[in-house]
Design brief:
This protein is α/β, with parallel strands linked by helices. It contains three helices and eight strands, in the order βαβαβββαβββ. The radius of gyration is 14 Å and the shape is globular.
Length: 146
């Protein structure tokens, strides 16, 4: 795997992180995969909400089978948010059929991507969020890999 681009940002509030997600969304194209890593409560979902806003996501559909998969309608097709927190059994992950979302009319956002590291295409965005010094400080690194 190769890193094509690496950008580092510092957010000082949840709003900053959401805004960064919103701005980042404009770079996304159908078929893109965004893997969001970071400790509990670091802000992965804030960033996802920003992407949703940036892409004018609407028509939220919760998967009938899996509460941690959410689909939204967007201009080019489907925006999918998969949150693998609490999934710890590999057998459960295999049942999800996550690869079905790795297709040209989907943008796929995945929280806790470590759990499916072997399934993730090498061409993707890795968003890594880490706590900073202050309570609301976060360091956000966005890497484009191939
Ligand atoms: N700079 C910041 N960026 C993002 N969130 C922040 C920031 N500062 C404070 N917060 C707060 O931290 C929390 C982040 O929650 P969020 O659900 O986005 O985290 P998460 O990484 O998705 O957690 P989980 O692993 O539980 O899914 C929110 O309560 C938010 O208000
Ligand atoms: Mg979350």
């Amino acid at each position: 795997m190769m890193t094509l681009q690496r950008d580092e940002y510092f957010a000082r509030s949840a709003h900053d992180t959401l805004d960064l997600g919103k701005t980042f969304a404009s770079a996304l194209k159908p078929g893109d995969i965004v893997a969001l890593a970071g400790n509990l409560g670091s802000g992965k979902t804030q960033f996802v909400i920003g992407i949703c806003e940036g892409l004018h996501a609407h028509g939220h559909i919760a998967s009938p089978t899996f509460t941690f998969i959410h689909e939204y309608n967007v201009a080019f097709g489907t925006l999918v948010h998969i949150d693998l927190y609490r999934i710890n059994k590999r057998s459960e992950i295999d049942e999800l059929g996550i690869e079905e979302y790795f297709r040209d009319d989907c943008i796929c956002m995945i929280e806790w991507p470590e759990l499916i590291a072997d399934l993730l295409p090498s061409e993707r965005y890795d968003v890594k969020i880490a706590y900073g010094e202050g309570e609301n400080d976060r360091r956000i690194v966005i890497e484009k890999t191939a």
